[in-house]
Write a structure and sequence with these properties.
It is a single chain. The chain is mainly beta and 202 residues long. The protein has one domain (13-190). It is 0% helix and 38% strand. The protein has strands at residues 13-17, 28-31, 38-39, 43-47, 51-54, 68-76, 82-85, 87-88, 94-101, 106-113, 130-134, 148-155, 162-167, 181-186. The strands form three sheets. Strands 2, 4, 5, 6, 7 and 9 form a six-stranded antiparallel sheet that branches. A five-stranded mixed β-barrel has the order 10-12-11-13-14. Strands 3-8 form a two-stranded antiparallel sheet. Strand 6 and strand 7 form a beta hairpin.
Length: 202
């Protein structure tokens, strides 16, 4: 069976660990900042008071840092029922929590675009480069983020927040040798668990 073509970005999907150990699905459950919608595949960070919010711009130095990537949510709906879902809306629900892959060694599969939402395959020479991310516009229909990485930003510069640690061979174009998906990890102290600076209490 042919690998499905990558037609649009879909957020960050956990695959394994940087050291090669298989990803076992481990997550942490964190409260979500009030009034924030939250989506599967979205990159989040801790804010003051110990809640998580979506990182609003991955195409900068990301001074907020990152704690990881959402793999699902839990909330209480207007009927008082606890719901497990792909995403949580910004209003009409309470007690919102996100399941977050927070392992600093976690590796994520992600689509490659420019600084937009258009798939833009890249050469394998991108491997071990640092890159910016692209937030995209999350979908309430699918419950998924539409984040990607900007292949055109690839550089050795330390201020780029992601490191390309692998290529996805199933998405290579045999005519060009270019890839539509790569594997990345959060770079160094951009991960809030590796930073010595904590968040303020509420």
């Amino acid at each position: 069976m042919a690998y499905p073509s990558v037609t649009a970005p879909y957020g960050f999907k956990p695959i394994n660990r940087f050291d090669g150990i298989a990803y076992a699905g481990a997550t942490q459950l964190y409260p979500v900042t009030s009034g924030q919608a939250i989506y599967t595949g979205q990159v989040v960070y801790f804010v003051a008071g110990g809640t998580v919010s979506g990182v609003s711009n991955l195409h900068t130095e990301v001074t907020t840092g990152m704690i990881g990537v959402v793999t699902g949510v839990q909330y209480v709906n207007s009927s008082g029922q606890t719901v497990q879902a792909q995403y949580a809306p910004a209003s009409g629900v309470t007690s919102v929590y996100a399941y977050v892959v927070n392992d600093p060694a976690a590796v994520f599969k992600v689509a490659v675009t420019g600084n937009n939402s258009t798939i833009t395959p890249v050469a394998g020479t991108l491997l071990n480069s640092n890159v910016y991310g692209v937030v995209g516009t999350p979908s309430a229909t699918t419950g998924d983020a539409t984040s990607s990485i900007d292949g055109s930003s690839a550089n050795s510069t330390a201020t780029l927040p992601f490191r390309v640690v692998g290529l996805v061979p199933e998405t290579v174009d045999p005519a060009t040798g270019y890839y539509s998906e790569v594997l990345v990890k959060i770079n160094g102290t951009y991960h809030q668990q590796l930073s010595t600076t904590g968040t303020a209490t509420a």
